[in-house]
Design brief:
The chain has one domain: P-loop containing nucleotide triphosphate hydrolases (Rossmann fold). The protein is built from 9 helices and 5 strands; from the N terminus they run βαβααααββαααβα. The protein is of the alpha/beta class. The protein has a 5-stranded parallel beta sheet with strand order 2-3-1-4-5, with helices on both faces. Helix content is 50%, strand content 14%.
């Protein structure tokens, strides 16, 4: 039976988690994007669609009946209790789907080590730390976070700052990390750190989950 080693990648809003995950993917890991899976969960017909609407109202819907993620974000990132409520609905479905994907990837009778990278923005906040064997935290200074978010998400600076405040501080995440990727520098600098972490992960032990 194949073995699966789970690498959790998290960080702050705009630190560059997805970039780091893509780098791990190029090195041979299977990248599972929790945000993309969560998007499927809240699509019409998805497991969390009706529940999210019942909790946050029909004002979060766009004209075609789909949940507008920007509208939903404006609601939940103003109130940490609402954010935690959304997490409690979405994350169980996301983890269920991730487990299904990992299970299907296993080929019986083959002694093969498989590496899965979980791109989960709120991994620690959602209580998923024990689900991973290694934790990678991607960091960047606040100005860099804001600049990247302005460019990528088209949000206002005030909205970005609010989202950053509603996440666990990077300093706390860093204390829990097995590996820290400083993504303030150049692409090549980040790539070298990812490659170093990859080598150590492949030759190291699993995370102590006790």
């Amino acid at each position: 039976m194949s073995k699966a080693l789970i690498i959790g990648v998290t960080g702050g809003f705009g630190t560059g988690k997805s970039t780091v995950c893509r780098m791990f993917g190029r090195l041979g890991a299977v990248v599972l994007d929790a945000d993309r899976i969560a998007h499927d969960v809240i699509m019409p017909g998805g497991a969390g669609y009706k529940k999210v609407i019942s909790l946050f109202g029909r004002s979060i819907l766009s004209g075609n009946g789909r949940i507008d993620r920007k509208r939903l974000g404006r609601v939940v990132f103003k109130d940490k209790k609402k954010l935690n409520l959304l997490i409690s609905v979405i994350h169980p479905e996301v983890i269920k789907r991730i487990k299904e994907i990992i299970k299907k990837s296993r080929s019986g009778g083959v002694d093969l080590q498989r590496y899965f990278v979980l791109d989960v923005p709120l991994l620690i906040e959602a209580g998923l730390l024990k689900a991973v064997d290694k934790l990678v935290v991607v960091t960047a200074d606040k100005n860099t976070e804001i600049r990247r978010c302005l460019k990528k998400h088209g949000l206002k600076r005030q909205e970005i700052s609010r989202r950053i405040r509603n996440q666990m501080p990077l300093s706390k995440k860093m204390r829990l990390a097995d590996f820290i990727i400083d993504n303030n520098g150049s692409f090549n600098s980040t790539r070298k750190m990812v490659e170093k972490a990859w080598r150590e992960i492949r030759h190291g032990a699993r995370r102590n989950k006790d």
